[in-house]
Write a structure and sequence with these properties.
The protein is mainly α. It has one domain (about 10-65). It is about 60% helix and about 0% strand. It contains 2 helices and no strands. The chain has helices spanning about 10-35, 45-65. The two termini are about 25 Å apart. The mean pLDDT is about 90.
Length: about 70
């Protein structure tokens, strides 16, 4: 089999970005509508923070392990 191989970490990055966008979007929707989930510490806005964390980690993985990146 010829050609370049795509690292699994790139796909993990894509997954983290996808989940991060979904969770952050939900958290922003909660903030905009004022309909917070009935859970402990709902005023901490965990979906926004965790979604942003997943998004940042996913972007890091996608940049570090992008296909076609020259090896040095």
């Amino acid at each position: 089999m010829h050609g370049s191989k795509i690292p699994i970490w790139f796909f993990i990055g894509v997954l983290l970005v996808t989940y991060g966008l979904l969770i952050t979007g939900y958290g922003i929707y909660e903030l905009a509508t004022g309909q917070l989930a009935d859970v402990a510490l709902s005023q901490a806005h965990a979906p926004v923070w965790w979604g942003a964390t997943l998004l940042a980690l996913g972007i890091f993985y996608m940049a570090k392990f992008r296909p076609g990146k020259a090896k040095k």
